[in-house]
């Protein structure tokens, strides 16, 4: 049984309700009538548990419910408002079954009444139809008390009577409290009437009494994923704005994920590329006093532990390329040849054998293909090619016989030959004395079982007049350092981009809550707690995040594919190929989710502080 004791309420300095005590029956229609502004609606809000800011007691079955109003509303209260308070971004059915989004329902069957409205959109409904919807919604939640604020206010007399008949029928099973101006209509249908004036009850008429007839409606469970569904409906209701948010977040996520993947992968692949040009086992050396190197010195060094091959590059002799033509190197078949990149003893043969004489060479598989096109490269074995060298602007060719093809693919076209072979061959072509040619740069190759640093230390001790350096190390270090800086800058910019879009999400969600606060208050009237409302708002931003992140994953995959095709075209090999970096994706997505959570604090805080009665009036 519902009871209020010594209820008083003030708005600033105005006393709206003054020490009201009432005791209501279990069933029947109880009307509250009085002039405009006397406090009827205020009293109704207190009875409905949506206004918690009052003095006095609200009792249900003798127990105070002032501190558990959400539970009280859910179990015992439903409303019909004068302005209907329908939620325009929900469907007809969702509006009617609104209470079921928040708790399980004892639902009456109203399929017949629904059929007439089913075809229409909410905005196209007439006032009478909206009134009917509001009635159906209150009926959906079969509560102990139905509170009606001017339920016939906007209806023509004929339809008003029909609504009163419905309420009369309702009142057999529950208590109907209605606030109305229409004293005549009220007298015709009410069992009790309270007369109010200036916030006080001035009279009470009991016209008849109604015994409550219990009925046992079917029980419907709460909708599954109810908060998610409401969040999605809310998101859909402002789809333009949501799309902008999703696009903003998607672009920032895509930028940061792609940029970080590029720099992380490119660093690795730059290193690989550098090592494909300059072997990881190479040590370069030169005299500290600018003295020329000699073949004896090379032979001496080659006998050191851990060294497997030594080379020296003649200062003024440069290999221009190889080709099949004997008369001139500038032919289309001529290939530019890089310096050989590793001792051939450690390369696996695909065809043929290792060189046995100075004029025999090995080709890397990629060079053989380059030279011979689509044809079977094994038929290159035994063929002659010409390597063209330039000295003092004079270009001369040395004839080599291809004896083998390795299975190696190299970035630059490469040929391998016996130690110092080209020095001996050039001597005959250019006719010089081997001891007279100068060379200031030598290369040593370290056995894979040895550490380059250790070998360098050893060499440094033994040959103090020479300076030894790891080939490619400083370049890779420089590349790593530069890419690290690029990474850092990218990360900062991307973080700023994500922060700004999250700030935007926070801002838009806040505006959204402010804009929809009346709808959220309506939900509260139909059983939602503050936590339910917070969940809806939070899930809405999670949905934005989810859509942005999943679209980002799809686009990220596409971008990686496009970049790989592009790089394959540009570099002509698959050396620079990217893969989806799930580590980067994971870190960025988790960080972003965390920031979304933080960006939701202002709207969620706003909901906690929201005044339901105030919000309903807006
Ligand atoms: N949020 C508010 N802030 C300040 N004053 C308010 C607020 N809400 C209502 N009032 C005042 O409280 C008084 C009672 O208002 P209430 O709406 O309860 O009256 P009512 O009897 O239902 O009037 P009506 O029949 O016209 O709806 C009015 O004087 C109104 O101006």
Automatic annotation (TrEMBL):
Chaperone keyword on record: no
GO molecular-function terms, A-Z: ATP binding
Membrane topology label: Multi-pass membrane protein
InterPro entries hit by this protein: AAA+_ATPase, ABC3_permease_C, ABC_transporter-like_ATP-bd, ABC_transpr_LolD-like, P-loop_NTPase
Residue ranges occupied by any ABC transporter domain in the UniProt entry: 2-223
Predominant cellular place of this UniProt entry's protein: membrane
UniProt subcellular location: Cell inner membrane
Membrane-spanning parts: 488-514, 544-563, 583-608
The entry's keywords: ATP-binding, Cell membrane, Membrane, Nucleotide-binding, Transmembrane, Transmembrane helix
Family per similarity comment: Belongs to the ABC transporter superfamily. Macrolide exporter (TC 3.A.1.122) family.
UniProt name for this protein: ATP-binding cassette domain-containing protein
Source species: Allocoprobacillus halotolerans
Top-level taxonomy: Bacteria, Bacillati, Bacillota, Erysipelotrichia, Erysipelotrichales
């Amino acid at each position: 049984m519902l009871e209020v004791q010594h209820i008083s309420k003030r708005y600033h300095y105005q006393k709206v309700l003054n020490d009201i005590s009432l005791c209501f029956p279990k069933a029947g229609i109880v009307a509250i009538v009085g002039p405009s502004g006397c406090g009827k609606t205020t009293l109704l809000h207190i009875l409905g548990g949506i206004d918690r800011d009052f003095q006095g007691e609200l009792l249900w079955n003798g127990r105070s419910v002032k501190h558990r109003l959400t539970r009280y509303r859910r179990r015992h209260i439903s409303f019909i408002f004068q302005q209907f308070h329908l939620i325009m971004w929900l469907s007809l059915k969702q509006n009617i079954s609104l209470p079921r989004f928040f708790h399980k329902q004892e639902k009456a069957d109203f399929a017949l009444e629904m059929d007439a409205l089913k075809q229409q959109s909410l905005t196209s409904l007439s006032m009478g139809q909206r009134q009917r919807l509001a009635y159906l919604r209150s009926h959906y939640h079969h509560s102990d008390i139905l509170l009606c604020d001017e339920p016939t206010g906007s209806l023509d007399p004929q339809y008003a009577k029909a609504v009163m008949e419905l309420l009369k029928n309702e009142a057999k099973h529950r208590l109907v409290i209605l606030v109305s101006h229409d004293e005549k209509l009220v007298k015709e249908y009410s069992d009790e009437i309270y007369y109010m004036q200036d916030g006080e009850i001035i009279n009470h008429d009991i016209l008849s009494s109604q015994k409550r007839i219990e009925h046992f409606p079917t029980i419907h469970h709460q909708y599954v994923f109810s908060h998610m569904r409401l969040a999605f409906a809310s998101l859909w209701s402002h789809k333009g704005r949501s799309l902008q948010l999703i696009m903003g977040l998607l672009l920032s996520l895509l930028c940061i994920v792609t940029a970080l993947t590029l720099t992380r992968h490119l660093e690795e692949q730059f290193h690989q590329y550098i090592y494909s040009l300059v072997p990881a086992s190479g040590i370069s050396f030169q005299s500290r006093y600018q003295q020329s190197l000699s073949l004896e010195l090379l032979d001496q060094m080659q006998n050191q532990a851990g060294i497997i091959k030594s080379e020296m590059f003649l200062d003024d002799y440069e290999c221009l390329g190889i080709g099949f033509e004997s008369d001139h190197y500038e032919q289309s078949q001529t290939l530019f040849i890089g310096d050989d990149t590793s001792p051939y003893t450690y390369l696996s043969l695909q065809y043929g054998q290792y060189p046995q004489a100075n004029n025999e060479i090995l080709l890397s598989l990629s060079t053989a293909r380059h030279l011979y096109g689509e044809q079977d490269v094994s038929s290159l074995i035994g063929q002659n090619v010409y390597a063209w060298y330039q000295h003092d602007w004079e270009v001369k060719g040395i004839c080599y016989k291809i004896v083998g093809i390795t299975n190696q693919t190299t970035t630059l076209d490469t040929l391998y030959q016996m130690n110092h072979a080209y020095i001996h061959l050039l001597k005959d072509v250019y006719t010089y004395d081997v001891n007279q040619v100068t060379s200031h740069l030598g290369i040593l190759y370290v056995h894979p079982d040895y550490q380059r640093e250790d070998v360098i230390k050893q060499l440094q001790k033994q040959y103090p007049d020479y300076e030894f350096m790891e080939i490619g190390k400083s370049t890779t270090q420089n590349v790593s350092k530069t890419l690290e800086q690029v990474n850092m800058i990218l990360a900062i910019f991307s973080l700023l981009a994500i922060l700004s879009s999250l700030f935007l999400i926070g801002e838009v969600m806040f505006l959204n809550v402010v804009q929809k606060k009346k709808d959220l208050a309506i939900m509260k009237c139909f059983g939602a707690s503050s936590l339910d409302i917070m969940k809806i708002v939070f899930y809405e931003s999670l949905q934005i995040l989810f859509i942005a992140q999943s679209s980002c994953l799809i686009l990220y995959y596409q971008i990686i594919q496009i970049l790989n095709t592009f790089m394959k075209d540009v570099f002509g090999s698959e050396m620079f190929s990217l893969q989806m970096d799930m580590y980067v994706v994971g870190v960025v997505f988790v960080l972003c989710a965390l920031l979304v959570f933080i960006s939701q604090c202002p709207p969620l805080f706003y909901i906690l502080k929201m005044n339901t009665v105030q919000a309903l009036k807006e």
